[in-house]
Structure formats: structure tokens, C-alpha cells
Specification:
four-stranded antiparallel β-sheet
Length: 113
């Protein structure tokens, strides 16, 4: 059974940082491109950042450029998202997903003073 379990969310003040993790199991993680997406209240799903399976190519939504860093550890079957300089607009549920495929249940990130 494919499982994607996100963790690391929480309440943080504007300007703060969080590191999200996604533990993957039930499939060959290293063979899949992975993507972080988010769902903010009243908005549609927004892709945040994908990372290629083998050559570690990454890209970022304009809203994340310069602040977020996606990475992966294929030995640990884990995907990460380092989020810095957080803004209230970053408040959302963050999901990891097989790019274009299954996603986890998400972790809530709330940026508020």
C-alpha cells in the first residue's frame, strides 16, 4: 500500500521557518518525481515545488522562490521542504505527492502573529 505521511507543520510567526517531511512507503520512492502542493482556505490547490527522481532537478512556484528549498533523501524514502521567511499567505495544508499522482493527508501550516 502506498503511503505518504507528512509532518512538521505547525503555528509559526511571520518571518519564521519550518521544515516539512514526508515519509514514503509502499513504492520505489527513488523512481518517482515528487511534488509539494498546498491548499489554502478558499483557494485551489497550488503546486509549490517538484523534485526530479534521479538528477535532483527542482523548480519552484513564484510564491516560493528564494524562500523554500525542496530536497529528498532516497536512502530514507523521505521528501523535505524547508520553508523560510514565512508569510501569512503561506498558511495552508501542505501535501506531498507523487508528481501527478497520489498525495498524503497533509500537514497544516499556519503563519500568524
Amino acid at each position: 500500500e502506498v503511503q505518504l505521511v507528512e509532518s512538521g507543520g505547525g503555528l509559526v510567526q511571520p518571518g519564521g521557518s519550518l521544515r516539512l517531511s514526508c515519509a514514503a512507503s509502499g513504492f520505489t520512492f527513488r523512481s518517482y518525481s515528487m511534488t509539494w502542493v498546498r491548499l489554502a482556505p478558499g483557494k485551489d490547490f497550488e503546486w509549490v515545488s517538484p523534485i526530479n527522481s534521479d538528477v535532483y532537478r527542482t523548480s519552484y512556484a513564484d510564491s516560493a522562490k528564494g524562500r523554500f528549498i525542496i530536497s529528498r533523501d532516497n536512502a530514507k524514502n523521505t521528501l523535505y521542504l524547508q520553508m523560510n521567511s514565512l508569510k501569512p499567505d503561506d498558511t495552508a495544508v501542505y501535501y506531498c505527492s507523487q508528481t501527478g499522482g497520489l498525495r498524503g493527508r497533509g500537514t497544516q501550516v499556519t503563519v500568524s502573529s
